[in-house]
């Protein structure tokens, strides 16, 4: 529930506030061009990184290995690409963090530690359809 409040109320409010402040500080057209540029750069980086991860998954599968890290990287790239296509500065920062391999490794490390903690507490949620 808290996550939904964060996603649907706080994040859009923060983005609108930052975009309005940016348009007052640097102007409407530079703000507009920044939104367009981050979308284009984000799409390019997501495609490039996504293809690299897909090749890594195929390589690991061909060797009979589980591509666990590669699949996690692919999920981060997908989320990062979506965030970069969403207008706003906060989502762009998070999106770039998920696309660059160096920062993506840090994010995936934190995510795995969080999952590990949930499992140790036996507090995981299983959704069954």
TrEMBL record:
The chain crosses the membrane at residues 25-46, 70-87, 93-112. The keyword Disulfide bond does not apply. Keywords: Membrane, Transmembrane, Transmembrane helix. Pfam families: FxsA. Signal peptide: none annotated. This is FxsA family protein. The lineage of its organism: Bacteria, Bacillati, Bacillota, Bacilli, Bacillales.
